[in-house]
Every structure is written in structure tokens, then in C-alpha cells.
Amino acid sequence: MPFRRDDLQNAYLAYKEFMHRKRREHHERYIFPFFAGSYFAYRKIDVMRVMTIGKSISQAPSYVDIGCGYGDFLTKIRQFVPNAIGIEEDTGIFYRIQKHLPDYIYSSTITDWFGKRSFDLSFVGWMEPGVDFRKTVSKSSKCIITTFDTGGQCGIDGECEYDEFGFQKIAWWRTPSWIDVNFELMNRFYTSSLRTEVNKREELAKLRTANNLWHIYTLPEISDKVRAGLKCWLKKEQDESLYSTQFFDFETILDECGFHYMETLPTFLGYQLWEIRFD
Ligand SMILES: C[S@@+](CC[C@H](N)C(=O)[O-])C[C@H]1O[C@@H](n2cnc3c(N)ncnc32)[C@H](O)[C@@H]1O
């Protein structure tokens, strides 16, 4: 379901106003994720993991981001998978804010597009409440990566799983959603009563959450090869401390807000952020 035209317009005006008086670098990503970021707070290692998964299926994987919005994550993926495309139901969002619609983002719904083409990797970062396109995606994909917030975004009855469509979940990891980071930024910089109350801010920081789950599903016949590719990458990621040498500028905000690579949050004892668990 597309955003309502006037809601989008009002949000865009608020975003423009924020950018006009902004003093802090990258905050807009986590305050206006639709215009300036994404609905999940990723690092470059997430992009590299997704790229590794794609390349373990094919040297030049076919890749689609379903419901890509303005294509923030997609453009990062295209640095490694240049022929990656996005499909976006409402490309009117580009015209409404006078933004150029790139030729790799197609104006379409999933049902119009799938069936005509199949993909090595389909990235599903969003499914509207009441919508369930899992069956359609399953028919035309070898691997499906989902990034869903545990708080919602999962279609009918919160179903995000692909096991019932013949896929195997081979791995998962947890990252913050934009709203986790947004709360931290609001408490630290935009709530005047909290700016000076360090103790209270520290108490609130203990309630930090990281609600975004990345699930990797593959068809059974490629699960061993994708799992092996991801394990090989993980070793490299850890041995070479890639998170500290390969990063996007905006990741400083994640560190500043206490969402470090491999951080354990009090709300999720036993799990580290970005830790990959294999199933
Ligand atoms: C909340 S935005 C998320 C954008 C981006 N994936 C992100 O995480 O920042 C969801 C987008 O999915 C699009 N969308 C929803 N259902 C869709 C469908 N069935 N086919 C294609 N696009 C869809 C909406 O128009 C909207 O732009």
C-alpha cells in the first residue's frame, strides 16, 4: 500500500526543514529513514554479507530488492552487484519530491513482475500489514533474504517465514531498526530534559533494543554452498576486523548510540549484534 500523498508531502517538508537547520551529521538517516536512509540500520558488513551470499550462488547474481523505496540499500548493493534492480509499487514517490528515478528501479508490484523473471537473490525488506506475497517470491527465487522488524512489517498474521514454501533457513543475525537508533538520538540530542540528566539517560540506554532480524532462506539444493560461502566470509570479517576498516560514514552514529559490532545489549543477553547464527 503506497504512502498517502499528503502524508508523504508533509513528511518531506519536515525533512527539508530539518536539513535546513541541521547541525549534526547523519542524524537525518535515523529521523527520516524513508527520505535519507532505510527502515533498518545497516553497516557495510551487512551489504558485504548479502553480496557474499549472492556471489556464492553465481558470479554475477541476479538480484532484486522488493519495495525498495528510494533505493538506499539497493544503491549500496549495486557497488558490488552492478546489475541489481529494485521494484517499487509507487514510483510516484520520486516525482513528488522531484527526485530522479534511476533506471534500475522499476515501477511495478511484485505480482506484475515475478513469474516473468526469476532471481538468484530476492531481498524483502517490507511487507505491508494484510499483504502476503511470500508464495509469489518463492516461485521465482533461489535465495530470499528478509529484514523484518520484530515489531511488525510482516504481512498477514506476522508471517515472514519461507519454510512452508520449500526453503531452508540457513542463518540469521540481529541489527537495530531505525527506530532503536532514533530513540537513542532523541534521548541524547532532542529531548531537552534529558540532555543534562546523564544518569537518567544511562538508565534509558539500558533499555536499548535491536529489533531487526535478517533471515537467510535458500532452496535446499544450494543451502550447503551458500552456508559455506557465508562461513568463509565470516572468518574473513572477524580475522581482518573488517567492520573497523570497511564502513560507511553514517556508522559512527550506530557506535555513538551504543550499537557496536558484536555489542551485547541488556535486553538481549546471550546474543551479540551482527553475530551470525547458523541453523
Ligand atoms: C516502508 S518502505 C521501505 C523502503 C525500503 N525498503 C527501506 O527499507 O527503506 C516500503 C516500500 O515498499 C513499497 N511496496 C509495498 N508493497 C509493495 C509491493 N507489493 N510491490 C512493490 N513495492 C511495494 C511501498 O510503496 C514503499 O515504498
Please characterize this protein's 3D structure.
This protein is an alpha/beta fold and 279 residues long. Helix content is 42%, strand content 15%. The protein contains 14 helices and eight strands. Strands 3-2-1-4-5-7-6-8 form an eight-stranded mixed beta sheet. The radius of gyration is 19 Å and the shape is globular. The mean pLDDT is 90. Bound molecules: S-adenosylmethionine (SAM). Residues 2, 33, 38-40, 66-69, 72, 87-90, 109-110, 125-126, 128, 133 line the site of S-adenosylmethionine.
Keywords:
alpha/beta, eight-stranded mixed β-sheet, single chain, 8 strands, 15% strand, binds S-adenosylmethionine, 279 residues, 14 helices
| Rg, Cα atoms, Å | 19 Å
Give a quick account of the main beta sheet: strands, pairing sense, barrel closure: 8 strands, mixed
Going by helix content, strand content and strand pairing, the class is alpha/beta
Strands side by side in the biggest sheet: 3-2-1-4-5-7-6-8
Measured between the Cα atoms of the first and last residue, the distance is: 33 Å
User: What overall form do the CA principal axes indicate?
Assistant: globular
Compute the number of helices: 14
Report helical residue fraction: 40-55%
Mean pLDDT: 90
Ligands present: S-adenosylmethionine
Unreliable runs, pLDDT <50, ≥5 residues? none
| Count of β-strands | 8
Strand composition percent: 15-25%
Write down the secondary-structure element order: HHHHEHEHEHEHEEHHHEHHHE
